[in-house]
Amino acid sequence: MNRKYRKTIIAGNWKMNMLASDIKPFAEELKALVPKAKWCEMVFCVPFVNIPAALKAFKDTRVAVGAQNLNENDHGAYTGEVSAAMLADLGVKYVIVGHSERRRYYGETDTTVNKKVHAAVNAGLYPIICVGESIEQREMGVTGELIAFQVKSALSGLAAEQIHKIVIAYEPLWAIGTGKTATAEQANEVCNSIRAIIRKLYGARTARSVTIQYGGSMNETNAAELLSKLDIDGGLIGGASLVPEKFAAIVNAANQEQA
After folding, report:
1. Structural domain contains residue 4
2. Any catalytic annotation for residue 99?
3. Of these residues, 41, 99, 101, 133, which one is catalytic?
């Protein structure tokens, strides 16, 4: 982390978990565990139907509410979809874009991701853009090229002043939901390469302001080591974000001396 130049963000991705009725007790327990977490921003990206309950439960706290997806169109005949404007109107701040599960199960492409990024930014939302490689791609030695392509595609058409509104999450596919985690050195190496790509595209000042998270099975036991690395500015947390004690431990791990 480098809090001198950029924000540390610990974001939970609840995926298709939690009922609206679960959120209030969850929030009360979390608030007791991290009452004054001033060293990072906390976010929960929740299912669409849970957004109103989450906004109510986390009102007047340092917790922001995010969505897990959005449609790239402003409006229209897209049954079952939700637009960026709808999310912003509710009070949502963040939205996950291009998660590997969306790419794998629902056919999202780098082109789709780029359109969604533009829709989010234009509506005043902060997109958390997910990039990452499979184990086969890592073993082939193409991680750098693949990540560069994903990042450049996602950011295509954005002006430098818009880059300040994006977050990038490096999520190696082989470390999502598997219990496997990239070593802190491996994760930081890729996050550093992502920052280098942004530097080439937008300059050093913009690059050093972008929050880059690690999103591959960060948990309460490995968070401190991962977050000690200079280019890892937070986490996109899956399973551990469903348990207040585990999420709080990760948040507390962000309270460490800066590099």
Report:
1. no
2. yes
3. 99
